[in-house]
# Entry
Amino acid sequence: AQKVTQAQTEISVVEKEDVTLDCVYETRDTTYYLFWYKQPPSGELVFLIRRNSFDEQNEISGRYSWNFQKSTSSFNFTITASQVVDSAVYFCALSDNTNAGKSTFGDGTTLTVKP
Amino acid sequence: DVKVTQSSRYLVKRTGEKVFLECVQDMDHENMFWYRQDPGLGLRLIYFSYDVKMKEKGDIPEGYSVSREKKERFSLILESASTNQTSMYLCASSFFAGARMSTDTQYFGPGTRLTVL
# Structure
């Protein structure tokens, strides 16, 4: 069975601090996708990144970076020099061949960035 | 840009009413989803459709039904609304898994916050 665990329910940081959101997943498939989505206070989930299981290369996009480690089944998300606009709920998700089109979502991490 | 729209941002209904939540996507996606989101429970899949007139139950289908008569439109129906269905409802769409353009990435609508009194 697939499972996504985001152990951090809430995180609060002060602006300009770096923050890492953890995501641990479980799957028996060797082919799968991992995702991060952002849900700002407005409510709409916004796609941030997708990573397939064969590509363990870390990715950086501006202040965002992702660390994918198959050995620990983790796909962690780091925000560098956080800003107030980063305040949101962040979801990690997993899609594999068993799910075929559906994604399993973690419970989300609520990030609050204080000025 | 992919656009997923939902018919209402906020909705207030009374117990026992029949409620329709509409979702429309403009990317020719085969898959469409309905989730509900409640504090501390994350996103829970209610129903899933991978083609017109096709539907599949998700994790919490009880008390809900769906309709997919056209590819771009996926409706969620609460046959007799109850107070425990007060929630945020999110619609999403994606390409069919295994299709050439499929990445399994889901694109979400803005959500409908439903209150049942």
Q: What stands out?
A: The CA atoms of residues 35 and 45 of chain B lie 4 Å apart.
